[in-house]
Design goal:
The structure holds two protein chains of two kinds. Chain A is an all-alpha fold. Chain A is built from four helices and no strands. Chain A is elongated and about 55 Å long. Chain A starts with a helix and ends with a helix. Chain B has a two-stranded antiparallel sheet with strand order 1-2. The longest helix of chain B is centred in the first third of the chain and has 31 residues, at 79-109. In chain B, helix 3 (69-77) crosses helix 15. Chain B is globular and about 75 Å long. Chain B has a single domain (8-350), classed as Hydantoin permease. Classes of the chains: A mainly alpha, B mainly alpha. The interface between A and B is large, with 38 and 34 residues.
Chain lengths: 74, 363
């Protein structure tokens, strides 16, 4: 966990909310919820040491392992 | 959702830059690894996927004119399946955009050794985000503006390389039969499959020449691919596979009368132009997918949050360039065709069968 990255992302998220606040107020509820959920996911992900954490790409690599082996055997 | 309109020609230019920008960077080397001296033949086989994808997408849009991709899905495979498919495409485009931004950043890092990758990615995504917010019309015009610069620079470089070319490097042709060149086509077909993105641009077209320009774009991409591969082969011979960026290494050899030399900054500059279009188009499609999948009223509010997610996904589970290149070979050659060619093909098949059964019911 790297606090520096987390605080940087928090500052960016804060800036985005401030920048979009005026416009976001006029949008319907569905848009508002999506906007905030995406920001929360982004904020939560920044808590982890992402480069060394298995991610979606690692999952895909596991699913496609037979194909990966095939490509490497070519 | 986006009220802007682009012409079919602008769509073609967008797709050309989207595909070629990163393709001439790394593809010759990966192709050469499998095809050795037949690397110039591989794009021909790979382009079959390109033609196939364009035809599928155009057929879909002919059956459901002016409908977005997810509306077409809802008509054919139902609401629940569309929601699931929407999630798949959302993650797919997020991963694809992240991967493209990462590849760009790793390339720039060769020249900015001490700059962190994230700074390069964020600066590019910031610019792309402003373009995406401005809408499809602006992206189309930017592409139209950059297209001649890109084409002109690539061909002027090949022209300057003419004295260095060794055409005899092409022999022996098909030394080990067709198989090596077919193996080499597995990687370039990923790039040709990206023409699937026109499904998101077709509803914004102001004319109905989508088919013509789609096919023309594939042809133009094919020609550029073959020309760059042949140039690389004529200069680097069988060593192509040992360079990460072969076309760049070839460009460093330009020397015209000891006066015009070291012109690789030009090629870096045009790559940044092209990659900017590529990142912007993928970013735009990611945003559009999310907005259409969740049925939002506007796509603008989610541009910035998705930008952060793209940066995070691009580093998630990918600690360095080696892992990035490994994934390029072991995951994407299968993931991209599934998402970009086979799922649309399946939807087209369902649409055709349902139409047939409907006409049968009428009779």
């Amino acid at each position: 966990m790297k606090w520096g990255i987390f605080f940087c992302v928090m500052v960016i998220i804060g800036t985005i909310i401030l920048y979009e606040w005026k416009k976001i107020k006029t949008y319907p509820k569905r848009d508002k919820i999506t906007f905030f959920i995406l920001l929360i996911i982004a904020g939560a992900l920044s808590l982890f040491d992402l480069p060394n954490l298995p991610g979606p790409v690692t999952l895909l690599e596991t699913i496609f392992r037979p194909f990966g082996n095939f490509m490497e055997s070519l | 959702m986006d009220k802007g309109r682009i012409s079919s020609m602008q769509m073609g230019m967008m797709m050309y830059l989207t595909i070629i920008a990163t393709a001439i960077l790394t593809v010759p080397s990966i192709t050469a690894k499998y095809a050795q001296k037949d690397l110039w033949l591989s794009p021909i086989w790979a382009s079959i996927i390109g033609f196939f994808t364009v035809i599928i997408v155009i057929q879909l849009s002919k059956r459901f004119p002016r409908q977005t991709f997810f509306q077409i899905c809802e008509h054919t495979i139902g609401t629940l399946a569309t929601k699931l498919l929407g999630f798949l495409y959302f993650t797919f485009f997020l991963i694809a955009s992240g991967q493209i931004t990462r590849t760009y950043a790793e390339f720039i890092k060769v020249f900015f050794i001490k700059t962190p990758v994230s700074v390069i990615m964020i600066s590019m995504l910031l610019l792309s985000a402003f373009t995406v917010i401005a809408g499809i019309e602006v992206i189309g015009r930017v592409a139209q503006f950059f297209f001649p610069i890109f084409i002109f620079s690539v061909f002027i470089i090949i022209f300057l390389l003419l004295p260095q070319l060794e055409p005899s490097n092409i022999f022996p042709i098909l030394e080990n039969g067709l198989l090596p060149s077919l193996k080499g086509a597995i990687i370039p077909q990923v790039w040709f499959g990206e023409l699937f993105l026109i499904v998101f641009l077709l509803p914004s077209l102001s004319d109905s020449k989508g088919m013509k320009w789609g096919i023309f774009t594939v042809l133009l991409i094919l020609v550029t691919f073959i020309i760059t591969n042949i140039t690389v082969l004529f200069i680097l011979n069988q060593n192509t596979e040992f360079y990460i960026y072969p076309f760049l290494s070839a460009t460093q050899l330009v020397n015209l009368g000891d006066f015009i030399e070291s012109i690789e900054p030009i090629i870096i500059a045009i790559w940044i132009l092209g990659t900017f279009i590529k990142i912007t188009v993928f970013y735009y499609v990611t945003i559009l997918t999310t907005a259409q999948w969740l049925k939002l009223s506007d796509y603008k509010p989610i541009v910035w949050p998705i930008g952060i997610l793209i940066v995070e996904v691009s580093v998630w589970g990918v600690p360095n360039l080696m892992v990035n290149n490994h994934i390029d070979i072991t995951v994407f050659p299968l993931l991209f065709p599934i998402m970009q060619t086979f799922i649309p093909l399946f939807i087209l098949g369902v649409a055709m069968i349902r139409k047939k059964s409907k006409t049968l019911e009428v009779h």
